[in-house]
Amino acid sequence: MSFRASVLTLYPEMFPGPLGLSLAGKAMARGDWTLDTRQIRDFGLGRHRAVDDTPAGGGAGMVLRADVLASAIDAASPPGDDRPRLLMSPRGAPLRQGFVRELAGGPGVVVVCGRFEGVDERVIEARRLLEVSVGDYVLSGGEIAAMALLDAVVRLIPGVMGNAESGETESFEHGLLEHPHYTRPAEWEGRSIPAVLTSGDHGAIARWRRGEAERLTAERRPDLVQPRQK
Ligand code: SAH
């Protein structure tokens, strides 16, 4: 059975977008994964299909209604659906490669894209939505965040990447950033490729790559080296 992604959004026309091209698009065409995009507004209330209302307690903006969103979630993910349900949210747990890999090994995912000021807290609790963030900045909606998450997940679905190995040495897979890459020409604008890489000594190459990965990680992302603070 292929990986099933369901996305709940007020902008279904944004999908598949970039997910329909390149690696993810080819994988979709092969049937390695399916994308089912649902319009939250189909569950909106009244003649105007309202999905949002003013925040309790006052303040700016609008809030996605719990009842509307719950109906949309229940239609996309009926009882017995064992896929995790995520809500894209700047308040969520930062998305990391370990979780991406875990999702890719599972049956699929249900992703709710927020809009406006966010969603009524009660639906997060009642439908056990796991909040996930793509970074410490605020997007105008969850769609681009959902695409980032799905792009990262789809490439790790078994069979999707041509070279099975290339997923494993990448940044974050071993708590390190990846080593630098080089290709032909051997000499470019007076810069040459590090001699070890053309030496044919595979042990030395592996040691150099490991050393560079450690150096880059210590320089750029000391937080990955030190034990993460809870
Ligand atoms: N008022 C909210 C931000 C709402 S942004 C706050 O201050 O926390 C509108 C929607 O965009 C959110 O509901 C969420 O679905 C999405 N979004 C914005 N930034 C995001 C991020 N960094 N990661 C994941 N989703 C994000």
Automatic annotation (TrEMBL):
The record's SUPFAM superfamilies line, in alphabetical order, gives:
alpha/beta knot
Which family is it part of?
Belongs to the RNA methyltransferase TrmD family.
Q: Where is the tRNA methyltransferase TRMD/TRM10-type domain?
A: 4-226
Q: Which UniProt keywords apply?
A: Cytoplasm, Methyltransferase, S-adenosyl-L-methionine, Transferase, tRNA processing
The record lists S-adenosyl-L-methionine as bound by G114, V134, G135, D136, Y137, V138, L139
Q: What class of enzyme is it?
A: transferase
What organism is this sequence from? Plantimonas leprariae
The role this protein plays is: Specifically methylates guanosine-37 in various tRNAs.
**InterPro entries per UniProt:** Alpha/beta_knot_MTases (IPR029028), tRNA_m1G_MeTrfase_C_sf (IPR023148), tRNA_m1G_MeTrfase_TrmD (IPR002649), tRNA_m1G_MTases_N (IPR029026), tRNA_MeTrfase_TRMD/TRM10 (IPR016009)
Q: Which gene encodes it?
A: trmD
Q: What is this protein called?
A: tRNA (guanine-N(1)-)-methyltransferase
Name where it's found: Cytoplasm
* Origin: domain of life: Bacteria
A single GO BP: tRNA N1-guanine methylation
Q: What is its EC number?
A: 2.1.1.228
The record's principal subcellular location, in a coarse class, is cytoplasm
**Catalytic activity entry:** guanosine(37) in tRNA + S-adenosyl-L-methionine = N(1)-methylguanosine(37) in tRNA + S-adenosyl-L-homocysteine + H(+)
**Subunit structure and binding partners:** Homodimer.
